[in-house]
Specification:
4 domains; binds manganese (II) ion; 43% helix; binds 8-OXO-2'-deoxyguanosine-5'-triphosphate; DNA polymerase, domain 1; 14% strand; Beta Polymerase, domain 2; 3-stranded antiparallel beta sheet; 5-stranded mixed beta sheet
């Protein structure tokens, strides 16, 4: 039979960690629609359907060209009936009525607005919406609402934080970090991770991973915080002490949270001039400092994207009988932890082709 069917090589994998997803998205009209549906499902507490739409969008992001017809979607993995129906409608009418309906929905709009505040998640947003609140002003003047420290900072610096951080600003922050480390411990180094490591031009924050000499990792973040305080550039900090335990097995379920020493900061970034009339802007910064021998695992975990990480773990568990998280990789068959010096080692342990950071935008 010479029928031209898809060869295994050309087939799209249902696992994001077996796809190369750059920032060049040829299917934006579809993926943006699917992401609205995903967010709406998340706001309704429907995790399964949210993940379904996210996976569908991710598969389309990995394609080398735009979908030309909804029939083409039939050979793609992770596209359920709901996702396919949306693609069909967009192919036919140029837009999806369901998506437009959601975008005009008062609840969706309000939830999205509230969730854009640092420290406010879907649960808090929903509780405010259910009390009939629809604007920031209403939230801030409602006497029964007690904002926590993070939310207070979120509202106080909302104007700054809601402006995306540029690559140049990330580079300036990296220099601030390097300057601090030079003062604290010159043998410590800092690497940009998160979206910027994946090649993004803008981010909602800047993520850094610190490589400290052996045994120094727990001291370094408190010292950075102290240094920034003394320089009067720290607007908010939430430091989380390490609860890392060497013997612990990797977490079975996907949890972005890890047990390394880390902190979530708001820092002042010096600028030439600004709309606000000050010479600085507030920027969100995340820092993580893993033990030296866990650096490759932490780097892989913090580089993202979230869906890429989720699928790496799922692939390891379901296809390889191994447990992966930000701390380690464990082989269930041989009951051993697998050491790694680089990210490449981890892909190799998993029998996966190496995927470069800029190809992890799943
Ligand atoms: P963006 O900031 O450019 O918008 O996107 P991003 O850089 O991909 O997202 P992020 O929210 O900054 O998260 C970057 C990675 O960090 C993501 O893969 C999840 C990962 N991460 C962990 N542990 C933790 C944690 O404990 N807290 C947070 N906030 N992120 C974590 O692996
Ligand atoms: Mn980030
Ligand atoms: Mn982050």
């Amino acid at each position: 039979c010479v029928h031209l069917s898809a060869t295994p090589e050309s087939a799209v994998s249902p696992y994001a960690c077996q796809r190369r997803t750059t920032l060049e998205n040829h299917n934006k009209i579809f993926t943006e629609a699917l992401e609205v549906l995903a967010l709406n499902s998340e706001f309704s507490g429907n995790q399964g359907s949210c993940l379904g739409f996210r996976r569908a969008a991710s598969v389309l992001k990995s394609l080398p060209a735009a979908l030309r017809s909804p029939e083409e979607a039939l050979r793609l993995p992770c596209l359920g009936d709901n996702s396919r129906a949306v693609l069909e409608e967009i192919c036919e009418c140029g837009s999806s009525s369901r998506v437009e309906e959601i975008q005009n929905d008062q609840r969706y709009r309000t939830m999205k607005l509230f969730c854009s505040v640092f420290g406010v998640g879907p649960k808090t947003a929903e509780s405010w919406f259910c009390r009939g609140l629809k604007t920031f002003e209403q939230v801030l003047t409602e006497p029964s609402i007690r904002l926590n420290r993070m939310q207070t900072a979120g509202f106080l610096f909302y104007e700054d934080i809601s402006v995306p951080v540029s690559r140049a600003e990330a580079a300036a922050l990296k220099m601030m970090m390097e300057e601090a480390l030079l003062f604290i411990n010159p043998s410590a180094t800092v690497t940009i991770t998160g979206g910027f490591r994946r090649g993004k031009e803008f981010g909602h924050d800047v993520d850094f991973i610190i490589k400290a000499p052996e045994g120094q990792e727990d001291r370094i973040l408190p010292a950075v915080i102290k240094r920034f305080k003394s320089q009067n550039v720290l607007l908010y900090s939430d430091f989380q002490k390490s609860t890392f335990d060497l013997r612990q097995l990797p977490n079975h379920r996907f949890e972005a949270m890890d047990r390394f020493s880390k902190c979530f900061l708001l820092v002042k970034l010096q600028m030439q001039e600004s709309r606000t009339g000050r010479n600085w802007r507030a920027v969100r910064v995340d820092l993580v400092a893993p033990p030296l021998e866990r650096f490759p695992y932490a780097l892989l975990g913090w580089t993202g994207s979230t869906l890429f990480e989720r699928d790496l773990r799922r692939f390891a568990r379901l296809e390889r009988g191994k447990l992966l998280d930000n701390h380690t990789l464990y082989d269930k068959t041989t009951k051993t932890f697998l050491p790694a010096n680089t990210e490449e080692d981890i892909f190799q342990h998993l029998g996966l082709e190496y995927i470069e950071p800029w190809q992890r935008n799943a």
